[in-house]
TrEMBL record:
The chain crosses the membrane at residues 38-60, 80-104, 110-129, 170-191, 203-230, 242-263, 283-303. The keyword Transmembrane applies. This is Organic solute transporter alpha-like protein. It comes from Anopheles epiroticus. Pfam families: Solute_trans_a (PF03619).
Length: 312
């Protein structure tokens, strides 16, 4: 290639760079492009998320140490798996900011692990009460209720009834479908993200109803479970443990919409490689890492002290 051709290529590349910045392109930069155009605010956010992630991991290891040494043996593994969600979210938050093209993969890992934790939480609750048979024996005739959020509004005619094997199986299936359905949907979305990124934001709209319906059913099952057991075993602190777990889902799924709206309306400079998507993701991950550290501290108060399992 001679000097004229080289100059022409450089001019075209510069024009494309300017045009992409003026039109606020949706293209995600490579790691090299991202580092070459790294700004001070983004660098500060990366450093802050790394520090928050280290703090969250420190809290997790401290919690795990206490659980391993103080919790009853049958609860140790599941309790630690549930607490792992907080450092895992911060870890992939750092990766998501550092590698812009990996943001949806990181989001998928966070999302799927939460769905797995939902079923782990169900299993832990059953261990807390010594299994389904013991729970049925310890409950009264007015314990099981379908009128719980988020579907309580469409279940006004259902009355409180007794706990049976079939009803517990129904709750189990509501929760079990979460990791299965959500994993399948997000794997399909990752294929779309890789193969057809320019149309990804349009195609994902067809998946949203399925994702939302599955989540609503799963959360409904978890609410039925917790509201059924918590009043009978108050020493288990189930409502608090459920809240610190459910908050992860709320923050990961609803908070990005709020941040996207704020960033889109307040930021005008989105020149490549610091595109609007990169800036929205960076601010979201910073907020999320801080929130995970707070939730991890709260969870340590709930899981650190071993529960005294009663007989109801």
């Amino acid at each position: 290639m001679d000097s004229n051709e080289t100059t022409t290529v450089d001019i075209i590349a510069e024009d494309n760079f300017t045009t992409a910045g003026d039109e606020c392109t949706n293209e995600l930069p490579t790691v090299q492009e991202y580092l070459d155009g790294l700004t001070l605010p983004i660098a500060f956010i990366i450093a802050a998320t790394v520090l928050l992630s280290i703090g969250t991991f420190s809290i997790f290891f401290n919690n795990a140490y206490h659980i391993l040494h103080r919790a009853p043996k049958q609860f140790k593994t599941k309790s630690i798996l549930l607490l792992t969600i907080y450092p895992l979210v911060t870890l992939f938050g750092v990766v998501s900011i550092s590698v812009p093209r990996a943001y949806f993969l990181c989001d998928t890992v966070m999302h799927v692990y939460f769905m797995i934790c939902a079923y782990i939480f169900f299993s832990l609750c059953m261990q807390y009460v010594d299994g389904e048979d013991a729970l049925i024996k310890s409950t009264d005739s007015q314990t099981f209720s379908l009128r719980t959020p988020p579907l309580c509004c469409i279940m006004p005619l259902f009355k409180r009834t007794s706990v049976t094997k079939n009803r517990l199986r129904f709750v189990r299936m509501l929760i079990m479908q979460l990791p299965v359905v959500q994993t399948a949907l997000f794997l399909a979305l990752n294929v779309v993200f890789v193969e057809d990124y320019p149309n990804f934001n349009r195609i994902i709209l067809y998946f949203v109803p399925l994702i939302v319906i599955s989540i609503l059913l799963g959360v409904w099952g978890l609410n039925i479970l917790v509201r059924m057991i918590a009043p009978l075993y108050s020493d288990l602190k189930l409502m608090g443990k459920y809240f610190v777990l459910q908050t992860v889902l709320i923050l990961c799924r609803i908070q990005p919409l709020v941040i996207a709206a704020i960033v889109s309306s307040s930021i005008t400079d989105c020149a490549f490689p610091n595109t609007l998507q990169v800036q929205k993701n960076a601010i979201f991950q910073l907020c999320l890492c801080f929130e995970m550290m707070v939730l991890s501290c709260w969870a340590s108060l709930l899981y650190k002290t071993p529960s005294n399992i009663g007989t109801g």
